[in-house]
Write a structure and sequence with these properties.
The complex is a heterodimer. Chain A is an alpha/beta fold. Chain A is 37% helix and 21% strand. Chain A has helices at residues 43-50, 74-80, 97-107, 112-125, 141-153, 171-187, 222-225, 229-234, 241-251, 263-271; strands at residues 4-12, 18-27, 32-36, 58-63, 66-67, 81-84, 159-163, 191-195, 207-212, 215-220. In chain A, strands 6-7-8-3-9-10 form a six-stranded mixed beta sheet, with helices on both faces. Chain A has a four-stranded antiparallel beta sheet with strand order 2-1-4-5, covered by helices on one side. In chain A, helix 4 (112-125) crosses helix 5 (141-153) and helix 5 packs parallel to helix 6 (171-187). The model of chain A has no long low-confidence stretch (mean pLDDT 91). Chain B folds into two domains: 3-251, Rossmann fold, CATH 3.40.50.300; 252-292, no CATH class. Chain B contains twelve helices and ten strands. In chain B, the strands form two sheets. Chain B has a six-stranded mixed beta sheet with strand order 6-7-8-3-9-10, with helices on both faces. A four-stranded antiparallel beta sheet of chain B has the order 2-1-4-5, covered by helices on one side. In chain B, a hairpin with a 2-residue loop joins strand 4 (66-69) and strand 5. Chain B is globular, with a radius of gyration of 21 Å. The chains are: A alpha/beta, B alpha/beta. At the A-B interface, helix 6, helix 9 and helix 10 of A face helix 7, helix 11 and helix 12 of B.
Chain lengths: 272, 292
């Protein structure tokens, strides 16, 4: 069975307007999935449903064969699904980095010695070992967000959900966080579900899920998704800038391959 | 209103030896009326501290240089900061977080009533209506609504309306497009360009998005450790890729492509907007007889 499985999931905040409206999909272990959609398309609601912060009105969600949305299983689910939100300042709780990372495992009642090992593992994974004794308030945005990820990793989740975790960071901070997440996905086989507005962050995903009005409207590889410029525009999305420029050049009669995604690819095509 | 800063300096925790930070360090800069001006630089480079001077949120200290905006001398103790703030509007990051009133109307009218308590109710209504219309909202539709019922993009528009309702000539925006979805972002930039044709004569944006800067700004400066490291048109600023990288910034896509093509001996002399880049590239192709 898939690691995450959603079947006809529906959820509404006010019982009239559905925020998630009949969503079904599966995620396999080790996949890197990007979820895109305009503001209010249901992306964040989906994240909250998968880790049990919200319970579906209809349909079923399974994480690692555990049914989500049941009070009895909620802690089992959250051991497996870690969520990193937009603003690290809302997610950091302690006055020293290592205490912050220890907060989750301590709550789970993990023995002292093992907590130490988990802090080591988590801070190494995000490259923040040198800041172990620092105060989170003295860190940059990107560093804070890496500590927030470490706090989630200390729970050894199988699934990492990033809910616009790079939106408030500057370009350097965004790169730091993304490279950490990619590394975790590749080396530790952590399954990643990345919700984002930055089309540039989508191009490396194994699969892209596009939401509109709480429904999945497209699901494919980034390359296939970004061939559908017109449809994306209709639902409030755009192409990565490099794809946009490539399409525009093609319309002007310049020969370029279809499905250019990155600056690198565009540059190579133009310089040929 | 022209903005002229001379040797402007600001030091946080000046009295403490260990904690003192020169956030702004001898900045001399002129921003002319009518510009769409960009301020960039890595986090902590002094951008925000600088722009907070522009409406007197941070006062120019004694012997810390001078700052003039039109007729206002911000170095002067008797400077009328209330009047200044009605002329220099400041929009912070995630401005929608500052919405508080029960209705959109009350929220937009709040600042206006503070600045101009003498306005009649009719005038107030007229001004609020104009401001909401300018930001692309339907006055009749939204005036009685709670700002919290609106979508993210609409909330941000209401917040901007609350700033432009005093008819500022200068509008300063910190990361105006952060958190908006791609189309929301594009619409928002379009809105700023529309506002730029009205009484808002000068727009200053602080941003990390180099593509936004190269696409829209007439000129920009790069802050680094409180000083201005680079200034000029986007084309001038992004011409030195090595320097830009040292300053912790990315190049806009068009600048990267220009550099890559230059390495191949193809010179694209564009202003770095995507349209101009494509036009100049096409011309280069034609000049070479259609084959590169």
């Amino acid at each position: 069975m898939s690691l995450i499985s959603l079947k006809d999931v529906k959820f509404s905040y006010d019982k009239t307007n559905p925020a998630v409206d009949g969503v079904s999909f599966n995620v396999e272990k080790g996949e890197y999935i990007a979820v895109i959609g305009h503001n209010g398309s249901g992306k964040s609601t989906l994240a909250r449903l998968i880790n049990g912060l919200l319970s579906p009105d209809e349909g079923e969600i399974y994480v690692d064969d555990i049914k989500v949305g049941d009070k009895k299983t909620v802690f089992e689910v959250r051991k497996r699904v870690g969520v990193v939100f937009q603003n690290p300042d809302n997610q950091l709780v302690a006055s020293i980095v290592e205490d912050d990372v220890a907060f989750g495992p301590e709550n789970l009642g993990i023995p002292r010695k093992e907590i130490g090992e988990r802090i080591d593992f988590a801070l190494d994974a995000v490259g923040m070992q040198d800041f172990r004794k620092s105060s989170p308030t003295r860190l940059s945005g990107g560093q804070k967000q890496r500590v927030a990820i470490a706090g989630v990793l200390a729970l050894k989740p199988q699934i990492l959900i990033l809910d616009e975790s790079t939106a408030m960071l500057d370009p350097k901070g965004r790169k730091e966080v993304l490279s950490v997440v990619k590394k975790l996905n590749k080396e530790q086989a952590v399954t990643v579900l990345a919700i984002t507005h930055y089309m540039e962050e989508v191009v490396d995903a194994d699969r892209v899920i596009v939401l509109d009005s709480g429904k999945i409207v497209m699901q494919d590889t980034p390359r296939e998704i970004f061939k559908r410029e017109k449809e994306l525009k209709e639902i409030g999305l755009e192409l990565p800038l490099a794809s946009y420029i490539a399409n525009k050049m093609r319309k002007n009669g310049i020969e370029l391959p279809e499905g250019v995604l990155t600056e690198q690819e565009l540059s190579e095509a133009l310089c040929k | 209103m022209q903005i002229v800063a001379k040797d402007l300096t600001y030091i946080y925790s000046e009295k403490s030896k260990s904690l003192a930070v020169r956030a702004v360090d001898g900045v001399t800069l002129t921003i002319d009326e009518g510009e769409f001006f960009g301020i960039v630089g890595r986090t902590g480079s002094g951008k925000s501290t600088f722009v907070q001077h522009l409406n007197g949120l941070i006062k120019v200290g004694k012997d810390k240089g001078s700052l003039k905006i039109g007729e206002f001398d911000l170095t002067d103790k008797d400077c009328d900061f209330m009047a200044l703030r009605s002329k220099v509007g400041m929009v912070f990051q995630y401005p929608e977080a500052q919405l508080f009133a029960e209705t959109v109307f009350d929220d937009v009218a709040f600042g206006l009533k503070n600045f101009y308590p003498e306005l009649s109710p009719e005038e107030t209504t007229e001004r609020v209506k104009t401001a909401l219309t300018l930001v692309g909202l339907n006055y009749e539709e939204v005036k009685e609504k709670s700002p919290f019922e609106l979508s993210g993009g609409q909330k941000r528009r209401v917040a901007i309306a609350g700033v432009i309702v005093t008819r500022p000539e200068v509008l300063v925006l910190d990361e105006p497009a952060a958190g908006l979805d791609p189309v929301g972002k594009r619409d928002f930039i379009r809105l700023l360009k529309e506002l730029h044709k009205t009484f808002v004569k000068t727009i200053i944006i602080v941003s990390h998005d180099m593509n936004l800067v190269s696409e829209n700004c007439s000129r920009a400066v790069v802050f680094d450790k409180g000083k201005i490291a680079l200034s000029g048109t986007p084309k001038e600023i992004f011409s030195d890729a090595k320097k830009v990288a040292e300053l912790g910034l990315d190049l806009p896509v068009t600048a990267k492509l220009t550099n890559d093509l230059k390495d191949k001996g193809i010179i694209i002399d564009s202003d770095l907007t995507t349209d101009d880049f494509i036009q100049k590239y096409l011309r280069a192709v034609k000049d070479k007889g259609g084959a590169l």
